[in-house]
Amino acid sequence: MSIEHRSGLLPYLFAIASEDTNKPAPLVLFLHGARDRGNDLNVLLKWGLPRFVNESSPLPYFFAAPQLPEGQTWVERESDVIAFLDELIASHPIDPSRIILSGFSLGTAGAWQITASHPSRFAGLVAVSGRVPKTLEPNQLAGLKEISIQIFQGGKDEKLPVEDTQQIVDTLRGLGGTVDFTVLPEGDHFIADEVYGDSKLQKWLISQSRRQASVLV
């Protein structure tokens, strides 16, 4: 799949959906982890979802992955991510009801924060090897009940206890949310290649809509 390097408010990788250009397609927006911050977009292509997209045949969704400068966080750049999203929707045939936000590690914290702050903007959330920011209020978590959520974690992740994630899963389900929690028993913190390369998740990414949530089967 042809992936482009683009500049803007944040530099970013971008790939055009394979579908008919006259028909709006989903968008998968990816927020990278701490070690991929900097000013070289090629770093993002080394693994995880960006590499999967880059090495795949054309996919049925638009893909975008902005890059943070060193020392910054996605939570700090929340308003810029939303402005970036608005710019993409305005300039490409993206279906605004079929936008998935995904993050890895530091990017997962940003994805939780941004989705909880703007729940009407997203159809799905994919959280990989990351925790929910402690700054999120209970009412913000309640706002996530309309969004289909996939959480992935390595059973041997020394940075993130499975019990902590399970507590969030239970809270969200108690609020009526649709949450799938997948633990990779032998996985450590760096499970992104295995997670994003899974065909079930790839199908899930294009099956979500703000009008109808579905589970991973």
UniProtKB/TrEMBL annotation:
User: Cross-referenced Gene3D superfamilies, in alphabetical order?
Assistant: alpha/beta hydrolase (3.40.50.1820)
Q: Which SUPFAM superfamilies match?
A: alpha/beta-Hydrolases
Instruction: Please report the name of this protein according to its UniProt entry.
Output: Phospholipase
UniProt GO molecular function: hydrolase activity
Q: Which Pfam families match?
A: Abhydrolase_2
InterPro entries per the record? AB_hydrolase_fold, Plant_Biomass_Hydrol_Est, PLipase/COase/thioEstase
Domain Phospholipase/carboxylesterase/thioesterase intervals: 81-193
Q: Which UniProt keywords apply?
A: Signal
